[in-house]
Amino acid sequence: MEEPFDNRPGAIWYDGEMVPWQDAKLHVLNHALHYASAVFEGIRCYGGNIFELRQHTERLLEGAKTMDFEIPFSADEIDAACNELLQKNGIEDGYIRPIAWRGPGMMGVSAQNSGVHMAIAAWEWPAYFSPEARMQGIRMKWGKWRRPDPATIPCKTKAAGLYMICTLSKHDAEKDGYSDALMLDYRGYIAEATGANIFLLMSDGKLHTPTPDCFLDGITKRTVMKLAEARGLEIVERHIKPEELADASEVFLTGTAVEVTPVSEIGEYKFTPGETTKLLMQDYDALVMRQDDRTALVSTSAA
Fold this sequence. Notes:
By secondary structure, this protein is α+β, with helices and mostly antiparallel strands. Helices cover 28% and strands 27% of the residues.
């Protein structure tokens, strides 16, 4: 059984201070617990190096503004805290979770004066899926919930409340023996997995991916798109109907947690992880392990 996340060794960065892991606690009347007024990020580190840290930090700060609060730390301070935390906890290959939230100063829908807090936790996490599952491709079920109309949610923000339907969809998939769920959007188009973007290699030889107009446009997604273009692959962002999966030969997910993970099944559709997916997996793995020479890697990967 996995060790509970409230009872681990090490430290957590909390409002500018390093505190023992078990002492990083909240009051039960924090506004974020009741009204989901929180934004967060998921970041990977490889060999002690944090991948695309500044992009994640900037998205966190912008997300807070969208949620109508301001994080009381600068991007430089947040980045420095992430790196300091890795060193203090001795983490080489791991996951970093910065989160900012409204505190217990006010209890009600309105919470302008509740006060804003921030914490950063980090732990060892070498792989989201097992190596066997990643190479063979994961099985996915159709999600039971849909991504809402962007007029109803702050869809460009990594806000805590937006993941409620992801949890419900993933629980529903896992109880039936699947690894994840593929969610449609409010119009019935393919959107994303519960925590990752999706790509399809279609019969035209191009990589197709849903237009992120009602869900998060992933940092990992954009990284993989650059790697694919360096390989000479054309990327098409568009609205994709579920039945178009019948025309896809390869399907894979991208995200900070899943990295590049092949898909072998979505509902009634079956796929075999192929050469294109494997090459992009290799290119991404090489990229995150060689951050000191990232530009050279991208320029030579098409050779």
